[in-house]
Amino acid sequence: MEKYLSVTTLTKYLKMKFDKDPYLERVYLTGQVSNFRKRPTHQYFSLKDDKAVIQATVWSGVYQKLGFELEEGMKINVIGRVQIYEPSGSYSIIIEKAEPDGVGALAIQFEQLKKKLTEEGLFQERFKQPLPQFAKKIGVVTSRSGAVIQDIITTVSRRFPGVEILLYPTKVQGDGAAEEIASNIARANERDDLDVLIIGRGGGSIEDLWAFNEEIVVRAIFESRLPIISSVGHETDVTLADFVADRRAATPTAAAELATPVTKLDLLTHFQQQEKRMATAIQNVLVKKKEAWRSLSQSVMFRQPERLYDGYIQRLDQLNLRLKQGFESKLGRAKQDLQKQVHGLEKENPSRTIQVYQDQVFQLKQLLRSRMALAYDSKVAEAKRLSEALLMLDTSRIVARGYAIIKKEEAVIDSVQDLKNKDQIMLLMRDGQVEVEVKDVKTKEI
């Protein structure tokens, strides 16, 4: 049995080999993404080619820095380390870096963000704002030291002197550039005196222009109250800022031309056209007013003005009739209410109440006399009965019938138990009394 290893021991041994093998500490792989389903934090999927497959893991912090979204079937190049997961005994690659195979990560990110914002409708033409024809103050979001601001100042001064230019010095590439661009767009929108806003920078690589592809900048342009002209890179360079801006200019000079009238001659021509349009409009209004006046002057109402108030007279008669009917109806209801109140008062007349109470008093007197007579007769009968009962208890009557009453020391004796030999007792009889001495006491057995 000593030859056999446990599964845990073997797995730990293999894990130790994987962890210490220098060839597995940093592995470069090319494969196709498979079984990918985006999760809220860490990402778990497979990398495969036509003959093999390996499990892959991207921790949340690494995934957020990739710069593009993983998609099912995408071919990618990754750098990572291979490890064994002990509970299942499976091995996988922990990805530390990744980029699309054959196409730059920025290009993939550009297309993915463009697709997302297109589906949200941010690039639709119906959201584009018209540019002002005669701007008095132009805002510019660009670098202070670049050629962009100089080209804009030169073009505006040449084409339309007197227009004020307000520069928002901005970092246009590198870390923090996107946040600064979006912040300055928001600052410009806080002013009430700006007519249009130009954002831009000179040419460069996709990395140099990338700040204008960041989502924060695109949304800041979309939410801008001010119309925005985008002038980023050369004519062949295209950024997401160009798609969402109200107008795109190939160069800073072209942006300045879009923001100002063409020439003084064109401006004069425009004013002359406006003057002609105004004169024509006034003439048309006068013609319409004359026709309206002529039509009104020939109308029946001007020839027979009394018709104007015929309807009002009829309306007044109707209102008078309604007022009379309403008053009569209200008066009738008031009379009915008054009669009800009078009838109620009559019911509450004190004389009637007094009479009712007097009748009740008379009835109660009659009832009292009747009950007093009954009570008197009852008491007389009771007294007679009690008197007769007392007479029945009279001792004189008892002795008159031949009985004697025995007394001992003034106490009536009714039991032999109260007597003993030699007691002196008195016998009360009908016609006198006898004093005797007890000779013998015999108790009757019951």
Helix-strand blueprint:
Elements: H1 7-20, H2 22-25, E1 27-34, E2 43-48, E3 53-58, H3 60-64, E4 75-85, E5 90-100, H4 105-120, E6 137-142, H5 147-159, E7 164-169, H6 177-189, E8 196-201, H7 215-222, E9 228-232, H8 240-244, E10 247-248, H9 252-259, H10 264-297, H11 300-303, H12 310-347, H13 350-392, H14 395-400, E11 405-408, E12 411-412, E13 424-429, E14 432-437
Parallel strand pairs: 3-5, 6-7, 6-8, 8-9, 9-10
Antiparallel strand pairs: 1-2, 1-4, 2-3, 4-5, 11-12, 11-13, 13-14
Helix pairs in contact: 5-9, 6-7
Q: Report the C-alpha radius of gyration, rounded.
A: 63 Å
Give the number of DSSP strands: 14
Distance between the termini: 118 Å
Secondary structure tally, helices: 14
What is the CATH topology of the domain at 106-262?
A: Rossmann fold
Major beta sheet summary:
5 strands, mixed, barrel
CATH class of the domain at 106-262: Alpha Beta
From the spread of the alpha carbons, the general shape counts as elongated
Share of helix, binned:
40-55%
Low-confidence stretches: none
Strand line-up of the largest beta sheet: 1-2-3-5-4
Oligomeric description of these chains: single chain
- Hey, roughly how much beta strand do the residues contain? 15-25%
Q: What is the SS-derived class?
A: alpha/beta
